[in-house]
Amino acid sequence: MMEMVDDNEIISTRELDASQELVFKAWTAPELLAQWWGPAGFTNTFHEFDLRPGGNWRFVMHGPNGVDFPNHNVFAEIVPRERIVLDHLSNPEFRVTATFEDLEGRTRLTFRQRFKNIKEFEKIKTYCAEANEQNFDRLGIVLAGMTE
Asked: What does pTM read for this prediction?
């Protein structure tokens, strides 16, 4: 499910058939995250993943058409099993706040993207919401292969 809250924010939500602990692990273990991050058809090469406030996450997303997209994020906040906040410093700039809500063995993932520049947001909002849904689909596949 996706909603536009205001002029520069997209909120995507998905209930996942996995525990809060597993969903958080899929977000914080680089070998798992690299398997599902990005829309369908994309792959990732991680260069740096320093999971702590102020830590860098640098990687390249490889598009299915052969185009590479360098990414630089800095973690702002990490609350185990509950929340990850990061700033995407590559263009377009935005802040991601991911929250993980326990639903008695299942997890509600809420993914908020607040864009710094409204003009950039206007350019990408039409495909960003669908890309987030594809990202969640890929996460679900990784989670299905994980065990507690």
From this structure: 0.91
Question: In the CATH scheme, what is the homologous superfamily, with its name and number, of domain 2-144?
Answer: START domain (3.30.530.20)
64-87 average pLDDT score:
97
Give the HSE-up count for residue 112: Cα atoms under 13 Å, Cβ half-sphere. 14
Sheet containing 68-79, strands listed edge to edge, beginning at the edge strand earlier in sequence: 2-6, 9-16, 106-115, 94-103, 83-88, 68-79, 56-62, 43-49
What is the average pLDDT across 78-105? Answer: 96
Which helix (H) or strand (E) is 133 found in, with range?
A: helix 118-144
b/e sequence 83-113, b meaning 16+ C-beta within 10 Å: ebbbebeeeeebbbbbbbbeeeeebebebbb
